[in-house]
Specification:
This protein has 215 residues and is of the alpha/beta class. It is built from 7 helices and 7 strands. The protein binds flavin mononucleotide. The site of flavin mononucleotide has 24 residues, from helix 1, helix 2, helix 3 and strand 5.
């Protein structure tokens, strides 16, 4: 019992430290290539105010890369997957954009998660029915998927489709999120997913990992 409490305590401390560190910056320990920007503002790939959603059509096939990314790490993974597979690309965007400030965003995300909210998302701009294979990407938020992923998964029918999840995080692993996708997207074949740490993406050390996974 005492051991369980101790292990739980250590896990919580590790998670809190990870989250605090994550708020600071893109971290790069390579001495020759240290990013040192003290702003908490980050460039967001898909956080625009329009109701139009970004859809990129590359393929004549039936594969789609669909992702949510607050900063741009998941987005970078999505770009490589799309380039390698020729899949179309769509972005999951909340109707009400998340704050651009990191700390504010973490607060909003935590509150959303505590309340089990399913924030409204914009229309994808395409018909999921047209796709058999879906590469589904997201960052880990508070040891889980962002709540907008729950909205996306619960609002759509994935029966008969094959889903390849991919995710990125600062220090956590996938935290059971691939199984959660399996449980929600009933009827879908959820294949082995891919996780890449944020630091590997910041160091541009991720493309080969994605290519190996796609093989
Ligand atoms: C709201 C929020 C919560 C996060 N929670 C976690 C977490 O629980 N574990 C972790 O390792 N990283 C966490 N992170 C860090 C992100 O998972 C990581 O920076 C990821 O690479 C960001 O992907 P993106 O650039 O596509 O948004 C969190 C980041 C945010 C903004």
């Amino acid at each position: 019992m005492k051991r369980n409490i101790l292990v739980l305590g250590i896990l919580m401390i590790v998670m809190i430290l990870g989250l605090c560190a994550c708020g600071e910056q893109p971290i790069d320990n390579n001495e020759n290539n240290v990013e040192n920007n003290n702003s908490n503002e980050v460039q967001i790939g898909n956080n625009n105010e329009t109701e139009e959603n970004a859809v990129t059509t590359n393929s004549e096939g039936n594969a789609l890369v669909v992702y949510f990314s607050w900063a741009n790490h998941t987005e970078k993974m999505a770009s490589v997957i799309a380039a390698e597979t020729g899949a179309d690309v769509a972005v999951i965007e909340p109707v009400n954009a998340y704050p651009t400030d990191y700390n504010e965003c973490t607060e909003v995300a935590l509150e959303e998660q505590r309340r089990g909210e399913k924030p409204a998302i914009k229309d994808l701009g395409l018909d999921l029915e047209d796709y058999d294979v879906i590469y589904l990407g997201y960052p880990i938020w508070w040891m889980d998927m962002p709540q907008v992923l729950y909205t996306f998964l619960e609002n759509n029918d994935f029966s008969g489709k094959t889903i390849y999840p991919f995710t990125t995080s600062y220090s956590s692993g996938i935290i059971g999120t691939f199984d959660k996708i399996k449980n929600i997207a009933t009827g879908a074949d959820v294949e082995e997913g891919l996780h890449i740490f944020q630091r590997e993406i910041d160091r541009d050390n991720y493309e080969e990992t994605i290519k190996d996974w796609l093989k």
